[in-house]
Amino acid sequence: MSQLTLRLPEELVGQLKQAAAAAGRSLNRWATDVLSAAVDPDLAGDEAERLRERLARAGLLVTPSGRRGRRPPADAVARARAAASRGTPLTDLISEGRG
User: Fold this and answer.
1) pLDDT in tens, 36-87
2) How distant, in Å, are the alpha carbons of 6, 28, 32, 60 from that of 3?
């Protein structure tokens, strides 16, 4: 896990601490969740959606390239998992020297 050092105005730090406390989270957990919501469109929930809307209005929303922005339907994920589980287990490939 990496660390990030930021220089922030004291007033903003106070606001961030208040927001984290109101959400019942540590400042680190809250900031991590906020930053994740800002760049990961797969995160669900009203709070994350409101944050993305605010960031988009401010011109600060980053959409990772090559991603569609939405999760596939649950049934599609289930089918893909089922298909993936029918292959040769990795341990067999390695024991056969094919890994």
Assistant:
1) 877 776 665 677 777 777 777 777 676 665 455 567 788 888 888 888 778 7
2) 10, 11, 11, 21
What value does the CA radius of gyration of the chain take, rounded to a whole number of Å?
A: 20
Helix axes 27-39, 46-57, angle to 10 degrees: 70
Is the pTM for the entire model greater than 0.85? no
Which helix (DSSP H) or strand (DSSP E) does residue 47 occupy? helix 46-57
Tokens of 71: 């999760």
**Token code pair at residue 72:** 């596939």
| Cα–Cα dist 47/34, whole Å | 9
5, burial (CB in 10 Å: exposed 0-12, middle 13-18, buried 19+): exposed
SS3 assignment, position 58: coil
- What angle (nearest 5°) sits at the alpha carbon of residue 65, between those of residues 57 and 30? 55
